[in-house]
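LAB NOTEBOOK - FOLDING QUEUE
OPERATOR: T.R.
BATCH SIZE: 2
PURPOSE: Compare the predicted structure-token outputs for two unrelated chains run back to back under identical settings.
PRIORITY: normal
REVIEWER: second-year student, initials M.K.

ITEM 1
FIELD SEQUENCE / FIELD STRUCTURE:
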Amino acid sequence: MKYVDEFRDRAVAAALTERIKQTVRRPWTIMEVCGGQTHSIVRFGLDSLFPKNLELVHGPGCPVCVTSVSLIDQAVCLASLPNVIFCSFGDMLRVPGSRGDLFGVKAASGDVRIIYSPLDALELARKHLDREVVCFAVGFETTAPAWAMAVTQAKQLGVTNFSLLIAHVLVPPAMEAILSSPQNRIQGFLAAGHVCTVMGYEEYETIVQRYRVPIVVTGFEPLDVLEGVAMLVSQLEEGRVEVENQYVRSVSREGNRPARTLVDEVFEPAPRIWRGIGEIPASGLRLKSAYGAYDAEVKFQRELAQLSVGIEDPECQSGLVLKGLLKPMDCSAFGTRCTPERPLGAPMVSSEGSCAAYYRYRGHVKCEK
């Protein structure tokens, strides 16, 4: 059965590739907005299957990559406090700030712990009532419901030694920021399927009408990406401007309403600085006033006030990569002064970073179509 499935998948991939080649007649530049899609494209060489006049560029599809230097510095500061247990997903530990990274704090005996669920951190807080448990809440809309659930449960249980350092970012405002830029050259988007599983795609309909660019909600497997590209180039060649859903097995137009309701109860939109890009209005989340006691920036305001403004490494060009203006291997520091062991920026160490994908799957040889 395994070999039958592989044969079928190869046949489907070949048919989709041929469909794309037969459809594309004019030059097009499209962007995927998901690091998982980027890794699938680079790992399986999907972009090498397309016509030369169809270019895929990689957008700000990794929440770890766009977490600002200032927030990393705040995380390092809080993790270094003697009474704090600092909890984070593992892919944040090597992301460099201007004051080092969380891995360095852990190596220096700071109590930094990797968690796999926000509820794990809440359980730690319940077991260690004499210490403060601070969680680095990083992610797109996909992980926001889990953090919202942890906060509501902490309030219901009366747990007061639990707080979040919030770095959540929202996808639609970032897409609008790219499209409204004078440097924009994106003519269509592959939207992140996991985000839409939670949020649906109603918000994208406004973007499509405002900027006249088609969007296809797409999954992460190679066949998902190929079908998403085929659907997108069909729209472009036909002059259609719509939101289409390739990821029908997981995504509906309205998304997961209970999850959205929970997020709306706990969080509200706020300005957010995106690493390498700058501040984007209403592109992040913050706790509503009813849950302000769980905001680490408020709880540790005195300690964080001593920090200077975080400065990005001037040699790092990740901002251009995240805006689709530069491919990772076109950066002069790629693979030499910037490696996974000694990164200049987050896209080289994040599990969904585009620089990490190129380094892992394409090494140091520049790939041409």
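ITEM 2
FIELD SEQUENCE / FIELD STRUCTURE:
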Amino acid sequence: MSRSLSILILALLGVGSSMADDSPRFRGRDGNGFSAIRSFPDEWSTDENDAWSVAIPGGGWSSPIVVGDLVLVTTAVSGEAGKPKGYRASVLLPPSMGRAAAPPSSPVNFLLLGIDLTSGSVRWTRRVAAAKPPYPIHPSNTYATETPASDGERVFAYFGAIGQLTALDLAGEELWKQDVGTYPMNGGFGTGSSLAVGTGLIYVLSDNEQSSFMVAFDAKSGEERWRRERAKGSAWSTPTIWESKDGTVLVAGGPGHVTAYDPMTGETVWKLGSYPGSFTASPIWTDDRFILGSSGPLSRGPLMAIQSGAKGEITYGEESEAVVWNNDRSGPGMASPVLHQGLLYVIGSGGILACYDVSDGDQVYRERLPESSNMSASLWAAGDRVFLLDEEGQTLVIRAGREFEIVRRNVIDDLFWSTPTLAGDRLLLRGANKLYCIHESKADDSAGQPSR
């Protein structure tokens, strides 16, 4: 029985509704940033439909996750690191290219916060670790960029800066922890690959300049189940569990390659080699194809689709039955794309929204976004809307379909790189300073809200 059918049956029986609203990993339950139903408002601001906002100490670009009525979010508190800077204030400045600040000279507090989804009150704060990261980060990055994950019973917090994976229960009590090691990243940018969870395992991807690997741990015991070495080089994409019509694989994009593993054993199912570039954006998929792509600040990479059931070696640029289509210079930048009713929405490195037909890769439209700044947060879709959040807090609401139309613009004054989180009738936006909950305003919603 498919997961979507199971959730539907539970909903009809009047049970399991909180499970259906959970968002237990990066980009939601299925890791694709999509909800067929939009129950949160598509219009908001600091004064409208902002149910609550709560200040988050320190700095972090990890997305919040949601389990039941509990929001879980990580952060790193340091007197030296401070808040991250935006694209224009760091990445585009010539002195910042290929440079990073020195690592902190005093320990950083790595925290996990448990926040009430309805009220925004902080239920508990746990210090997962206090340590000095051995490597620096770029001014635009943070020491808490990896999104945690949950299997419904436990929450897994991973901080790549210190190489620590920690499992806690939903009250914030530590269950086990593992040290996976720390490694230098290209240009001193720092780490960013989030966790994947499924089949009773938690997966950590570390693509770095010294010793790249994928490792799987038992979610309950913390015991290492398998580990696979990967080609050396930095990448920041999050591994994806692809449940296709031909079976389930764990797919991870790295420098010059994309590898699909058997999630239980770590054996390679297929591998795309000679790929021209590395990965920051995470992929998207359907039942029968896997869509991946990349672009950098100064270059445009490819966007391509791999057929489900692929096996063995695939070489980029060579004819293969496994490659459904391949579009040159069409890949996403930092923002991961979203798929809605057969249409793929992609933000490239130049601030242009492109829409493609996922069946054949044909371009439907390509439009420059007016009055919009850099977009690092991944796109999301719900109902008949596609949402694009830029770093200055402006969300463009696009009508889904073959005609480009901006329905409205919503603005919250903060700096945004984190990918938003869908949780039933609520939308969570993490800024550099606060976590915001978007929810339809009601007359009795004002009581007991955290201070703005």
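REVIEWER COMMENT (ITEM 2): Residues 235-336 form a domain with the Thrombin, subunit H fold (CATH 2.40.10.480).
FOLLOW-UP: none requested
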